[in-house]
Amino acid sequence: MRAVVQQTVGGPEVLEVVETDRPAPLSAEVLVRVHAAGVNPVDAAVRSGMYPLLGEPPFGVGWDISGVVEEAAPGARFKVGDEVFGMPFFPRAATGYAEYVAVPSRQVARKPASLDHVQAAALPLAALTAWQGLVDAAGLAEGQRVLIHRAAGGVGHLAVQIAKARGAHVIALASEAKHEFVRSLGADEVLDYREEGFLERVGQVDVVFDSSSQGTASLAVLPEGGVLVSIMEHWNTALAAEVEAAGRRFAGVSVEPDYASLEAIARLVDEGRIRPHIAETFPLEEAGKAHELIATGRTQGKIVLTVG
Q1: Using the 8-state DSSP alphabet, how is residue 29 labeled?
Q2: What is the C-alpha to C-alpha distance for residues 171 and 151, in angstroms, rounded to an integer?
Q3: Which tens digits make up the pLDDT trace of 245-275?
Q4: Nearest to residue 188, comparing CAs of 173, 198, 200, 177?
Q5: Taking phi first (over 0 means left), then psi (-120 to 50 degrees means alpha), and beta for anything else, what does residue 9 get?
């Protein structure tokens, strides 16, 4: 099979397509023939060595996949021919940029019927990050107010939709050029984070979903008991202590595989309440170009690799 691997850390040029052995599923695993693989900022951070998650190369990055079950080992939740999507093994290596991936069947879910594989591959890591932050950690409820940073990005544009599906009032931050896009997602208010004093216009919110390493900057809009969800500084114990000392709750979120949440997300997708936005697609052989684009930090929605 073809897979994208790297022999050293470095720029996008270190990603190369090689021929390698097809993996064999173990007990309760499925072998997925991958049709599309999502590209996320963490992929580029690991590739470059900035985030040494997988140790020393050689390894293959990529976690988001959507495809069809080719083999099902005894005890697996799916059968041959089932369409599935997921984010297997994170934060360990999954080598998701490949024609085949063997995964535990409880780390994938049935693909939303209303999406094709490219759209489905855009969902897992970003949607699970938003879900685990807003729903599991913050307990976002109907009628609450939530502030979402980087609302046009891969995680942010799904966080807006998940928050709206929960019945929240969504205040979204994005550059002015992306305001129309963010409003189309259902945001109730959209503010330009580059304008001086923009936080003063937010008012009080119950939850801040921070995907931009703002630290305690957002505490001004959180009343006592409010929740600061951080996905970029989930490891920051000093930040957590400062937030707690201020009488707010800190929720550091590092995404993990979760088929039950994927199923809940898939239901909202098929109800028409969540839709991933695809910024651009690339063939597997152009994974390096996909990484060049995601490194700009200006992507609207998600980037996806097509496989096979």
Answers
A1: E
A2: 9
A3: 999 999 999 999 999 999 999 999 999 999 9
A4: 173
A5: beta
Report pTM: 0.97
Rounded to the nearest angstrom, the gap between the alpha carbon of residue 278 and the centroid of all alpha carbons in its chain is: 13
What are 108's strand-pairing partners? Answer: 86
Write out the two tokens for 292: 């060049």
Instruction: Report residue 98 as tokens.
Output: 């490949």
Would you state the pLDDT for residue 127?
A: 98
Q: Tokens 């699970």 belong to which residue?
A: 128
Query: Token digits for 23?
Result: 């993996």
Q: Which residue in 164, 251, 262 sits closest to 211, CA to CA?
A: 251
b/e burial code for range 96-108 (CB count within 10 A of at least 16 → b): bbbbbbbbbbbbb
Sequence-distant (6+) residues with CB within 8 A of 56 are: none
The strand ranges marked E within the chain are: 2-5, 16-19, 29-39, 65-72, 83-86, 100-104, 108-110, 145-148, 169-173, 189-191, 207-210, 227-230, 249-252, 278-283, 302-306
| 113-165 pLDDT tens trace | 999 999 999 999 999 999 999 999 999 999 999 999 999 999 999 999 999 99
Eight-state DSSP code of residue 234: T
CA-based nearest residue to 260, from 48, 114, 110: 110
pLDDT (tens digit per residue) in 41-59: 999 999 999 999 999 999 9
Tokens 């109800």 appear where? 271
Locate 128 and state its tokens.
């699970």
